[in-house]
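Hi V.,

You were right to ask for the full record rather than a summary. Here it is.
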Amino acid sequence: HEVLETVCRLVAPVSPFMVDRIHRNLTGESVHIADWPMGVPGTLEGATADAWDDDAARATARLPPQDTKLEQTMALVRELAEAGRRIRIDGGRRQRLPCAQGWIVAGPDLSAFHDLLAEELNVEAIRVETDLDRFQRIELAPNFRALAPKARAEVNNVANAIRNAEDPEALLASINDGGADVLGVLVEPSDVEVKRVEREGFAAQTVNSESESDTVQVSLVLDMNDTPALLSKGMARDIVRRVQAKRKALDLDIEATVDLELWLSNAPPMNADDVQWVATETRAAACVVHDTEEAPAHAEHFEVDGASVHFIVS
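Predicted structure:
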């Protein structure tokens, strides 16, 4: 009785309904208003394993020490997950279309949580990168307040030359190394503003990681480039969601098998492995994909990223 009651209290946060029923049968009260088990009682008289006393246990037992480092690490993981969701939303990337890779730049070792973040953000793999410059490029903008007095009538031409420099990184290096000659004007560090923007195909967000000693900036970078394999996987996942919804609407038994026909228009070609995955996930005995034939009028229809998909579940 005592063991079962204690286990119910421990399991309640992750299995709230079943253990509440058991606890009510044992004690007549809900497990969710019961005290958290405090472990083996301490030295108070009468508080022994043979003569359990809840009051003595609460007075003398000790909870495990607080793991501040773990709490800070999990807070950072949650922030990075939220940052990744913002990246996808800002980039207009639909939820079921995976990204090929993601990178964590700087911060503590989060390798134990890479798989968790990859699953949460629909990324094929999360890796560590030490150089954020790999994903960024330099943009130079003229500082007209400083540039105008020295360039005078040529200020607009000089500004355009700075803004449209063929190699902005080389120009910036020259400017920082004593100044660069631009259309006969000596351009110095105070004459330009330096901006760092993501290279094409990458998107990033930066969050703060707080520890007991300092605050470190940690960046999450996602590869936003599409490949035929990623497009095929994304389409397969969208199809599965719609077919599963149709199965539910038809009130089919979970184990019931179906036949599935698909008609794809203006859609990326689907790999054979992804077609088989669709069949497995939807419990389809056969999954036939039509690329050219026109879909029947009674077929279900949805569109995603410009692709038109019709399907029939029978």
